Amino acid sequence: MPDHTRPPDKRVTIYDVANEADVSPSTVSRAFSRPSRVNSETAERVRQVAERLGYRTSPLARTLSTSRTHMIALVIADITNPVYAEIVRGAQEAATDGEYTTVLIDAQESDRLERVAIERTMSTVDGIVLASSRMSDSAIRMFAKQRPVVVLNRAIADVPCVVTDNPRGVRRAVEHLGELGHDHITYVAGPEASWPNGIRWRSLLEAGMELEIKVRQIGPFSPTIAGGERAAEELCARPATAVLAFNDQMAIGLIRGLGQRGVDIPGDVSIVGFDNIVAADIVTPGLTTVAAPLYAEGSAATRHLLTMIEGAPGHTGRPMVLPVRLVVRHSTAARNPSPGRARSPWVRQRPAPSPAPHLW
Amino acid sequence: MPDHTRPPDKRVTIYDVANEADVSPSTVSRAFSRPSRVNSETAERVRQVAERLGYRTSPLARTLSTSRTHMIALVIADITNPVYAEIVRGAQEAATDGEYTTVLIDAQESDRLERVAIERTMSTVDGIVLASSRMSDSAIRMFAKQRPVVVLNRAIADVPCVVTDNPRGVRRAVEHLGELGHDHITYVAGPEASWPNGIRWRSLLEAGMELEIKVRQIGPFSPTIAGGERAAEELCARPATAVLAFNDQMAIGLIRGLGQRGVDIPGDVSIVGFDNIVAADIVTPGLTTVAAPLYAEGSAATRHLLTMIEGAPGHTGRPMVLPVRLVVRHSTAARNPSPGRARSPWVRQRPAPSPAPHLW
DNA sequence: GACGCGACGGCAATGGGTTGCCATGTATTG
DNA sequence: CAATACATGGCAACCCATTGCCGTCGCGTC
């Protein structure tokens, strides 16, 4: 007789194992979830039987009684933005290490979409990482009341946060531009709902003050390549020699938009971005940018979330801040002495070439 | 007396509602999940009471009795590859429309990681979309036996598949290169475990046969920019005038790698990629590439999966094939008549510049 | 008036672990 | 040797909604 396993249409439960191993179901349960609570020999026997029967613990059933789903939600502002790829990786890794599964939510830059998606998912997850949330502080706090929440790239009182050192990043960028002779920097703003956008601008104000460099802001624009291209248009109306863009995608849009209008980069304008996405190394000229430890952001935030889920207080004091560094490439150069065209640095204005073929 | 809701530490269940509305729990349950099965007035009353008490149906408990989690897994080969962004979006949208939640799994180009992640998650989801799986056919079939599975970018007998029209895409690329005077095309291969890699090569063989263009293959290389750069090295040893790369990332790596070695693109070599990722429009020169309807891929696969979950047979006949188109940019040009340097088209070989600053 | 049928709603089992509490037996301590 | 402590394992309640099955009741029909 080959094997007398039970009818294959029925899944194996702790009761089956219990019968077979001659113990009670609770012992089987404990053998897996709290081995210390049961005699090691018994535990071993149970494990053997379970193995033989092909028993797999049902996470769903476990969930019902423990009300832990062992899932966390990772909410990102825009999956199309490559910055998030590494963040997601970092988060996944940390989650997997902790035996948690990650549900990814793409908010598509919409605070409404973000909110409804979270509402829909919240009851199914043990905690939430909000990466670059576009929601209001109060909305976030409301969620934080119902589930452990860690916020990434944003500082909110009373909610645990992980941020990068924006002030320092801006400072380094400004110093760099200052050393190149620029005495005026234009900030190309991203979404108003974006916290980094605000702090970058404020940091720029401050750094400008200290280093005696004038600053101004244009925007807001959408934090995409297209947004950067639109910013390029506007920039033409109010030329600048040095630009700090909210992020790399906008910076790349600027490079393209300005390039199409015959503006030389970095000859006429120096451009600095944020994030150091892969494409920053691909554009011509290579983009000088403030790099953040993306992977570390994702994993730090997630690890912190997991400790909160396990019951830790979730220290809400100062946000955890991660270091940044300036990556210098070729989109920044010494300020053009602009011989004789002080008022309007960009005199030549060749017609834009036919628009590039476009995406689906 | 302000309000006499039950102690706030306890969540509201159907039993609470049942008590309050003076019906049995089953009626409450039915009032929500099968309104037709209960008197409309009763249903309305129940709904009112539920509303007043702030009752929220617990998806977890529902899951246990229906054994439907209303979640699906979306497995992608590499979240770092921008192609997947749109696929994920399409899938999310379709899933959300069907009231399903998506669990994203990044396989990091590893078939082992892919398998263990799926094993870990399988019992928690109602179905799986496998986008560009790196697993073996048999592994996939095994999963398909346990849960509904739809495979994207790959054709496997007996498993529902969604693919893009690779043969046609390759054909168009070859025609394009042929028209430009190229009579020899080098295919730069991606991962051997990648199904599109295989079919693209076979399609190239076929198209070359018909159009009397010689073809050869080098590789495999990793399907990344770095992989393309390595391919560039190897390509230097065996020069070509026209290259078809497995995907855009490799094509971009080729452009950079060859460029650093002084090879002119498209003057000396024409390059065609696959996928039409955003960066294809950003490199210099713009990359000619075969574009696929990524969003549609994701949503089609997911919608099909959902119908299977709802009990549909999951037609496993021919795979569903989505159209592609060739996007011509500036990385392809008429074949250089190569005056006097027929044997070795790339004579000038300037020293590579210092390596670009690198990522974190 | 007897019978049949459909609408409505309740009972109780089900899904599969988890865990507080108690009982038993063995080991340690004074 | 009595008394207390600890290690083990079982009992049964619990998590919360779903659903097959049955009873009741009102209405229409022959």
UniProtKB/TrEMBL annotation, chains A, B:
PROSITE patterns: HTH_LACI_2. It holds the Pfam family Peripla_BP_1. It comes from Micromonospora lupini str. Lupac 08. GO terms for molecular function: DNA-binding transcription factor activity; transcription cis-regulatory region binding. The keyword S-adenosyl-L-methionine does not apply. Residues 332-360 are annotated as: Disordered. This is Transcriptional regulator, LacI family. Residues 12-66 form the HTH lacI-type domain.
